[in-house]
Input
Amino acid sequence: MSDQSYALFETAIGTCAIAWRPRGINAVQLPMGGMTQIRTRMQQRYAGISEAEPPQHVQRVIDRIKALLAGQPDDLSDIDLDLDGVSAFQRGVYDIARRIPPGRTLTYGDIAKQLGGVELSREVGQALGRNPCPIVVPCHRVLAAGNKPGGFSANGGVDTKLKMLAIEGAAVNYTPSLFD
Output
């Protein structure tokens, strides 16, 4: 039996899921089709996880995520995360990303420079691609060089990233080209 549970919840961008352990939130799943797909994804990602009614402290996190995705600014930086199994480098990337306020962005290079050098930009992108807690760790606020959207591993890809940035009022000058 796992000490990890999850719950589904509706947002302005679709059905999401959140998972928690006794020490904090350890996963957020962005929309991916519907409830059945999200339940399957959570079971695949976390062996032995069970769906449960969220305790009050998790429900408060859900309410804040829903409000953020409805356009109410909240940086969510005070939410306790349980990131067991995440490397020190990834934690560094996530800590910096969590300090980006809604409506603002940084680039992969900006974060890489804070961690030791712009040559770490690719590793920063890879760490964000493995982010277990999107929205709470706002990887959508990190852009590629030239303020291009870069990648986004959530369902819907860059369109979802751009939608989330638009909800937060971030100015992203992006026109897709054949070469993106």
Notes: The chain has two domains: 5-69, 88-168. The two ends are 45 Å apart (CA to CA). The first strand starts at residue 5 and ends at 11. Residues 5-69 form a domain with the Double Stranded RNA Binding Domain fold (CATH 3.30.160.70).
